[in-house]
Automatic annotation (TrEMBL):
GO CC terms: cell outer membrane
Location of this chain's protein in the cell: Cell outer membrane
Keywords: Cell outer membrane, Membrane, Signal
Pfam families cross-referenced by the UniProt entry: SusD-like_3 (PF14322), SusD_RagB (PF07980)
Family, similarity comment: Belongs to the SusD family.
Residue ranges annotated for the RagB/SusD domain, each copy included: 290-476
Chief location bin: membrane
Signal peptide: none
Protein name per UniProt: Putative outer membrane starch-binding protein
Residue ranges occupied by any SusD-like N-terminal domain in the UniProt entry: 26-221
Organism name: Sphingobacterium detergens
Length: 476
């Protein structure tokens, strides 16, 4: 994929009025945020270039295509909306009948590579700009390398062997090489980023040392590098910089944004509905009825509801699922006239009211997952007591009985189940199913026909037309 022109986000020095707990001024942008850098005649600072990488998370792609290939494709979610609305390719993704022409794959493939290109340009620009404050320069580069790693992590989990854009636009590097590239970026970030509490209020939401450590722990988990995953998870847990939110439901409310449990979030623009994460809440909000908040896509599946109920996991169920006829925590009634019986509560914004741009941050990585990374890695290393301690901290929060088995195979299954219930609708379920080799059984159990070729996404057909020498994934 060749990106001919670089587009950067112009960042206003004085922008929207922001809520005190969302003082992310570094993300404020004007309505016309894209300029061609080579034509603008304006000199931008390295920080503005880095800010432009963060801005990539607020695009429409994350409100629809992203949901399709991370949630609707899995056993956690169904397409939703109305029966007559296919949502483009969303019904195909839900039914596992998609092909390489599915637009959601094309959109996210392009989005992630454009984000990587923007991050690389920010790194190069910062390195050559002439900053004399070495720590500040390396911090900005560390932020960009963290963000670049995050985008590569999506690509390698979805497609396996992919081009490393800084080396070649077409040649697909082995997944192991891509992971090594991710690890190097994250290690630089760890070495050069400040801890969360060291940032000024205006910089809340930037990448931190803890975020890089947590993400690298997860990257190790996906490669079955158990010792490294466990070590970094413990580093984050023992750092003193993070703590579990005592009330699970509050994590996704305004009061929980950038809270003690949060390692990294995609920041919305502010408490006013102006330019946020475009339509993320609206697309998933209850459809129809008197409340009429949104489009009603990406709804919880009966399979997920059954999993919550089988575990008697009422707290996480009720924090994850909006039910038809329910009165929400803010007093809003989801009346009986809405089109679907369930909706995704983790995407709900109390202030949004159906507006196009949401004020809601997307929680990307949090301490609850770090405990589960430690539990899984420790169990694979044969440290069942350490695994149980980490697992039961998560279960105790939601008032579930402690797990006691030390049988490695049994505990492995229980940890995987815990990941599903704890992290539902946090955009990892499909990747977890593939990683743990549960995809075929899980999707068959959900009434879908899973084919082995689906272990990897198809290279988008438009990409293959542009670069026919790029090989397709097997079976596609």
């Amino acid at each position: 994929m060749k990106i001919n022109k670089l587009y950067i986000a112009i960042v206003l020095s004085a922008g929207l009025t922001l809520h005190s707990c969302k003082d992310s001024k570094f993300l404020d942008v004007p309505s016309k945020e894209n300029v061609e850098a080579e034509d603008s005649g304006t000199v931008y600072t390295p920080e503005q270039f880095v800010n432009g990488v963060y801005g990539m998370f607020t695009d429409w792609d994350y409100a629809f295509s992203f949901l399709g290939i991370t949630e609707m494709i899995s056993d956690n979610a169904d397409k939703g909306s109305s029966a007559t609305d296919s949502g483009g390719d969303k019904l195909l993704l839900d039914n596992l009948t998609y092909t390489s022409t599915a637009g959601s794959f094309q959109s996210m493939w392009a989005r992630w590579y454009k984000s990587i290109g923007r991050a690389t340009r920010a790194i190069e620009y910062t390195e050559s700009y002439g900053l004399t404050d070495e720590a500040y320069k390396n911090r900005l580069i560390g932020e960009a390398r963290f963000l670049r790693a995050l985008n590569y992590f999506y690509l390698v989990r979805g497609w396996g062997d992919v081009p490393i854009q800084e080396r070649d636009y077409i040649k697909r590097e082995p997944a192991a090489e891509v992971y090594a590239h991710i690890e190097a970026d994250l290690q630089f970030a760890i070495d050069n980023l400040p801890i969360k509490s060291a940032y000024a209020a205006k910089d809340l939401g930037r990448a931190t040392k803890g975020a890089a450590q947590g993400l690298l722990s997860k990257v190790y988990l996906y490669q079955s590098k158990w010792q490294q995953a466990a070590d970094l998870a413990k580093t984050v847990i023992n750092s003193g910089g993070y703590g579990l939110e005592s009330d699970y439901a509050k994590i996704w409310r305004l009061e929980g944004e950038n809270g003690p449990e949060s390692l990294f979030e995609w920041q919305a623009r502010g408490s006013s509905i102006a330019h946020g994460i475009k339509q993320y809440s609206q697309v998933q909000a209850p459809r129809g009825g008197a409340v009429a908040l949104g489009w009603g896509f990406n709804i919880p599946s009966q399979n997920l509801l059954d999993a919550f109920n089988a575990e008697k996991d009422d707290i996480r169920r009720d924090a994850t699922i909006i039910f038809r006829g329910e009165t929400l925590y803010d007093g809003r009634l989801i009346d009986s006239g809405v089109e679907n019986p369930m909706y995704n509560e983790k995407a709900y914004s109390s202030a949004n009211g159906g507006a196009e741009h949401t004020d809601k941050n997307v929680r990307y990585l949090r301490l609850g997952e770090i405990y589960l990374i430690l539990a899984e890695a420790a169990n694979e290393l044969g440290n069942s007591n350490e695994a149980l301690d980490a697992l039961n901290i998560i279960r105790t929060r939601v008032k579930l009985p402690k797990i006691t088995t030390t049988d490695q195979a049994q505990l492995r299954q229980l940890i995987w189940k815990e990941r599903r219930l704890e992290l539902a609708f946090e955009h990892d379920r499909w990747f977890d199913l593939v990683r743990t080799k549960q995809a075929k059984a899980a999707m068959t159990g959900n009434g879908k026909t899973f084919q082995d070729k689906m272990l990897l996404f198809p290279i988008p057909e438009n990409q293959r037309i542009q670069t026919p020498e790029m090989p397709q994934n097997p079976g596609w």
